[in-house]
Design goal:
mainly alpha; 14 helices; 2 strands; 298 residues
């Protein structure tokens, strides 16, 4: 009897501390956390919903205080934004924003991926100093460089030129892209690249067939963030462009005139200008979350 008791005690002692049972997704958490999450979500979405609702109101209903939530809906704000009745057409500013955002994003990727490769997979000497240099370029406020940039653009004939915005947006987004891509490329297993090298793969083949598929979420996240930063940029575009190379945010500010603020038109313009960023965000949502969670902003 004593032998069986000792064996049971010994077996119990070897089991170690009891492990905490992991909560399954079906069990969920406390309802208060869910309510808090919905409250925070609605707090962020409420201004967007108000902007969307106001864009479908007339100027008279949009300017009432308190807001006329149940006022009749109309498309007059969108007709005015798209130039119906002889107004200014928004297509040139939209095309300028798309051109500057897409070209600058492509240039950033072309420059950031090799730089991140040289800082993570095949680190150059003093690579930490190089990373700090990229980070230090973000220390200077953009407003502090407006006057030198304006004088440079004026003396070189690049004032009101979309190519200057492409160059500036590339320079503006390149440091953060290098940091993001470097952090993500560091997650690529070294064993995969060594196996590819043993099979005779060159550098280009290894980057295209091994590194690129693994780093695709990080490339997508970096591209989307650079595109959003370029699309929403206002300060440089407002200072360095005019009637030819003006972008969509600059066009949006033209609705605030000395005659007053046309709230319905402003909301309609803000909805239309926000659509490309929202569509790109929803289209690359899974890649963006995967890229940001696997090392992009660690």
């Amino acid at each position: 009897m004593s032998t069986h008791t000792n064996s049971a005690v010994a077996a119990t002692s070897f089991k170690g501390p009891a492990r905490k049972k992991r909560r399954t997704p079906e069990q969920g958490g406390h309802p208060a956390w869910g309510i808090a999450a919905w409250a925070v979500g609605l707090l962020f979405v409420a201004p967007v919903l108000f902007m969307l609702l106001t864009s479908f109101h007339s100027e008279t209903d949009a300017s009432t205080n308190p807001p006329s939530v149940f006022a009749p809906l109309t498309l007059d704000g969108y007709r005015a934004f798209f130039g119906a009745g002889g107004g200014t057409t928004p297509w040139p500013p939209l095309i300028n924003s798309l051109t500057a955002s897409v070209l600058s994003t492509l240039l950033v990727l072309v420059l950031a991926v090799p730089a991140a490769y040289a800082l993570s997979i095949k680190p150059v000497s003093k690579w930490t100093d190089v990373l700090f240099f990229f980070l230090s370029t973000k220390f200077l406020p953009i407003v502090a460089g407006l006057l030198p940039l304006f004088l440079f653009a004026k003396n070189t004939g690049l004032l009101d030129n979309i190519n200057l915005l492409v160059l500036l947006y590339t320079s503006m987004n390149l440091p953060i892209a290098v940091w993001m891509m470097r952090s993500f490329l560091a997650e690529v297993p070294v064993e995969m690249m060594e196996a590819a090298q043993l099979d005779g793969a060159g550098l280009v083949t290894m980057l295209r067939s091994v590194v690129a598929p693994v780093a695709l979420p990080g490339i997508a996240a970096t591209s989307l963030i650079c595109f959003i930063f370029s699309w929403n940029e206002l300060l440089l575009a407002r200072t360095l462009t005019g009637t030819v190379a003006g972008t969509a945010p600059v066009f949006l500010t033209s609705f605030a005139t000395s005659q007053g603020l046309f709230l319905a038109q402003v909301c309609a313009a803000a909805v239309v200008i926000s659509l490309p960023v929202l569509v790109a965000g929803f289209a690359a949502q899974d890649k963006l979350v995967q890229g940001l969670s696997l090392g992009a902003v660690k």
